[in-house]
Amino acid sequence: MALSMAIAAVMMTSCGSPKKVPYLVGAETFSPDVLSQIPVQSDPIITVGDLLNIDVTCHDMKLVAQFNKGRYVDENGQIININRQFNQYGSTGLEVSTEYYLVNADGTIDFPVIGKIKVAGRTKDDVANEILNDIYPKYVTEKPTIDIRLMNFRVTVAGAVKSPGMYQSKNERMTFLEAISMAGDLDIRGDREEIYLYRTNPDGSREVHKLNINDKNFLLSPYFNLQQNDIIYVQPNKSLQQNAWQLSPVASATITIVGGISSLSSLIVGIINLSKK
Q1: From the CA atom positions of the chain, what is the Rg in Å?
Q2: pLDDT interval class at 269 (50, 70, 90)
Q3: Where are the domains of the chain?
Q4: Comparing C-alpha atoms, which of 61, 54, 231, 75 is closest to residue 144?
Q5: Topology of the domain covering 18-40+153-236
Q6: pLDDT digits (tens, 9 = 90+) for 110-127
Q7: What is the mean predicted confidence (pLDDT) over 159-177?
Q8: Which CATH architecture has domain 51-150?
Q9: Which of 121, 133, 188, 250 has its CA at a distance of 20 to 30 angstroms from the CA of residue 5?
Q10: pTM
């Protein structure tokens, strides 16, 4: 009886609270009016070090071939595409092409014919409009379409997750829960109430935010939607999965000692009983 009570006491003090394991507890209680006030995720702001894919197109592609990196018109009037070269960085799956535009340290890119364009701190639409105004009607008689894609929208997930690493989004969007899912979810040691988000702004300044994803209000947080190059660090703790328990090393050692004492007591009692016969 004493042994059972001791084990139960150790388990109660070493198990994490199931209430702290789920995400966004009580989020289903939000009214539609509250949820409708969540701002729509805006387009990412271009920053230093970003990789941009910029396509300039129109009905007659020969007119705009010179404005597309990796394309030119030969002496026969044919559009030639230079083979795109990719580099892969380990297991991250991040693609880097020689046809992409790297945003330089001064926040500019070198665009064919036009020259340097300041892009850092601006949206894609803003930059696309500037390129359009620089090209048409000065260089071409047909109004072209400018399509800009951010090719390095990625976040890093580290700490107490099952598969830490760098993860890329193909559609320039990523929520916190999507990033965590890509990393295999938090493991049993992940602290849902102490997660840190490290963010570098387009102007180079940095921010650090403490997140509590156990709280339903995180769904309304401006940090629920991630920005490119965000870093998520999950603090480790001893929280446990809902409807499950796990003993800490101290608890395991305590039960081992208690069990040993109980076994020794039983042995001594048995020897005494034998000696009385």
Answers
A1: 30
A2: low
A3: 2-14+247-276, 18-40+153-236, 51-150
A4: 61
A5: Outer membrane lipoprotein wza fold like (3.10.560)
A6: 999 999 999 999 999 999
A7: 93
A8: 2-Layer Sandwich (3.30)
A9: 188
A10: 0.69
